[in-house]
Design brief:
Layout lengths: L1 E8 L3 H12 L4 E5 L6 H5 L2 H20 L20 H19 L2 E4 L1 E6 L2 E5 L6 E10 L3 E3 L12 E3 L12 E5 L3 H12 L3 E5 L11 H13 L3 E3 L4 E6 L5 E5 L4 E4 L1 E4 L3 E3 L32 E3 L10 H15 L13 E3 L5 E5 L2 H7 L4 E6 L4 H5 L6 E6 L6 E7 L3 H13 L6 H4 L9 H12 L4
Parallel strand pairs: 1-2, 1-6, 2-3, 6-17, 8-15, 9-10, 9-15, 10-11
Antiparallel strand pairs: 4-5, 5-6, 7-16, 12-13, 13-14, 18-19, 19-22, 20-21, 21-22
Amino acid sequence: MTHRDVLVIGSGPAGQKAALQAAREGKKVALIERDRVLGGACVHRGTIPSKTLRENAQHIRNLRKNASQLNWELSEDTEMHTLITRLDQVLTAHDRYMREQIEREGVEVLHGRARFISPRTLELIRVRGEPETLSADQIIIATGSIPRHPPDIPIDHENIFDSDSILSMIYLPRSLIVLGGGVIASEYASIFQALGVKVTMIDRYPMPLGFLDGDLSQAFVQTFEAMGGSWLGSTELDSVAYDGISEVIVRCKDGLSVRAQKLLCAAGRVANVKDLALENAGLALNENGQISVDARLQTSVPGIFAAGDVIGPPALASTSMEQGRRATLNALGLSTKELPDMIPMGIYGVPELASIGLTERQARAAYPNVLIGRAPFAEIARGHISGNEEGMLKLISDPSGRAILGVHIIGENATELVHVGQMAMMAELPVDTFVENIFNFPTLAEAYRLAAMEIISKRPT
């Protein structure tokens, strides 16, 4: 048996930062990864591949919008790999960067499948190798998540896909049904629709992205439908089946039947703990299929911490990184501040959506008369130049019209633009800051000035 100060299971965003932090504190740390490459699902099956596809989808959409004489369409013979250009180069470069950083900091990387023997002991099964027993003072679980498979959805990864397998399609389909209205469903539905696939979204809730304010969700649906997509909300499923020939058939409880060449089931994600033998460590998943942790990211078993998607929402790569770092600091007994409440949300659909702070609903529940300022990108020069007229920035302030409570954006570059509002909120700058200072022209950042001016005009006298 070999001993380490810290063992980290999983090399995704949370695991990487957890291991690096332990090494920087002078600890003997090993990072365990079952795949031959580092990065986890975030890098190899989720975030980077889907965002790479999104970039090309947006380019294609812009070509169609800006060149009215362009008579060009993707066909059913279009191979998927041609739409994710440079992915191999991106992944190779990312893996190399991670390995160099990890090696530079002195983190030991162990490739193999880990399972608990006891709360402080793991068995590591390597490829073509004998099992190895490892022990540690502190163990951090950062194994990420896997797609949830509803029992009544016959996912076969050939005609009916989950969010991990959807990009394994060989050819771009003519039509696609997307089950779900969350972040993953909305991203993929809008991306494939931008590519020219006929996409139908079906969900039991009335609107997609229901955690956002209604005006942003509505704007997303309007853009999605303007591209040719169909949104079927408040719809319960009766059955899903492949007809054995060429189509997937979805029958709804209201009698509606929808057919498409392929189907994506995006029914959420659960903790990726298969074969980890959590019961040997005295752990079990909660009712949501995730590992429960306290405010210090410690599980119910002292000395075992967890971070990232394996513990559930917000399940953002950016948040997972910080959770991993904090889990290590807490495990080593080092003081940390509470995780910031102001965490930016970025949704990489077509168009992008982003938010920080209180939603309008939350603000109105906390304050009697909040003030709202909106800046349509159609009123910004840069919006016209970039063909981004569908976008909008919304500022939410307290009743005095001075304190910024929230920033919400839809439109291209929303995930970048939201950080301007984030910095203003963190610094507790007043709404007037956006009017009294100068922005480059033409830029989308001017939307902050326009929204701020509307709030100022509404201030009580």
